[in-house]
Design a protein that fits this description.
With 402 residues, this protein is of the alpha/beta class. It folds into three domains: 170 residues, FAD/NAD(P)-binding domain, CATH 3.50.50.60; 124 residues, FAD/NAD(P)-binding domain (3-Layer(bba) Sandwich), CATH 3.50.50.60; 77 residues, Enolase-like, domain 1 (2-Layer Sandwich). 23% of the residues lie in helices and 28% in strands. It has nine helices and 25 strands. The strands form eight sheets. A five-stranded parallel beta sheet has the order 8-15-9-10-11, covered by helices on one side. A five-stranded antiparallel beta sheet has the order 21-22-25-24-23, with helices on both faces. A hairpin with a 2-residue loop joins strand 17 and strand 18. The chain is globular and about 55 Å long. It binds nicotinamide-adenine-dinucleotide. The site of nicotinamide-adenine-dinucleotide has 27 residues, from helix 4, strand 10 and strand 21. GO terms for molecular function: oxidoreductase activity, acting on NAD(P)H.
Length: 402
Amino acid sequence: MVGGSYAGLQAVASARESGFGGRVTLITAEDHPPYQRPPLSKAYLLGKVAEDALPLRAESFYRDAAIDLVTGCRVSHLDPVRRTITCGQDRPMPFDALVIACGARARRLAVPGAELDGVVVLRDLADARALRERLTAATSVLIVGGGYIGLEVAASAASLGKPVVVLEAGPRLLARAVPPQISDHLVRLHRRRGVTIRLGTGLDRLDGEGGRVVRAMGSDGARYPCDLVVVGVGAVPNVDFAQACGLATPAGIAIDAFCRTGMEGVYAAGDCTVQPNAFADSPLRLECVQNAMDQGRSAGAAVAGRPEPCPGIPRFWSDQFDAKLQSVGLSAGSDLSVSRGSSEEGRFSLFHFRQGHLRAVDSVNRPGDQIIGRRFLAAGLSPTPDQARDPAFDLRTLLPVS
Ligand code: NAD
């Protein structure tokens, strides 16, 4: 298994749970065993989670499951004929089955000044350590990108009392993941907490003094003084060695419902993959923990000779200030959205329908609606839009007794 995060770790665990008795090696380019990533932009930055609480599994897990964990090893080559992988100058390692779960990396900005000291990205623990340290010293923070990273870091930095400006090139926040009503709610939430949000504004240039960033020039012509710039403009799948042997395009490694690639005995899982999904009209790359774990489970089972399809119900969540944002399904492509609860009170859900059938639920501080939404989608059932918008109607009565 190549890649030591949620997908790779789940793949080794599931291979063992499904009865795989052969030798299992989990290879990760990072220097640490697999760890939790969601806290890195939130509780970890706020100093509320210590590093020793981050590992996903205790050391005993690897020992007990007889998993060889190899850290600090970046696979650079896959030989499909000899069926070997190679890390740099090391000797090629043979495999009978391979799971590629190399994830994604932060996209870098291509603007003058992007290489200045004080311009950072956030993807892994090393990034988070550096950001946490810089955040303590920062006097004014500029965030480029109003996606998950940008907004979570903005909320953390503002909670630490730092002045924060977010530049979002698109017309609304988090446009890739949520519908306009949620974007509008997030703008109001962040502004109320003192974050300056500039929509439709990209970054033209960063200026430095003595090699350190001191100011940004926005595409709106304004100057933004800053001594810390956090770039959160998306992620690029890590497909280098897979692409070199024809398994991937720059968009990702194409897999089927069982996480099989085009090569016999080679599977892929997580942020580096593109997979058909019942909620989308064409195969897509889903960047979230739940998808990485679902695909890892499916890939591990396949390695053990017990293939199981991926459930493929997308789920996302994000915490920003006191808002818990959760989504299940995909709202893109829906033709009707109805609201349950109240945006003014900061507790509401949007139920999205296509041709009268439920496709997705987005919630702010209504976790119960998410549980119900998940159950509807898993069962292929749907409330009517009128039932969904009526807070007095108990949606659970429409579900089979569990
Ligand atoms: P993203 O795709 O969620 O958001 C990037 C944002 O940057 C978009 O809104 C885009 O319009 C904007 N943008 C792009 N270029 C820009 C520019 N030049 N100037 C200004 N804005 C620009 O990506 P992200 O926020 O960087 O997140 C990276 C990865 O981390 C993703 O895989 C994401 O799913 C993951 N992540 C997820 C969570 C979560 O699920 N809660 C939290 C953190 C990170």
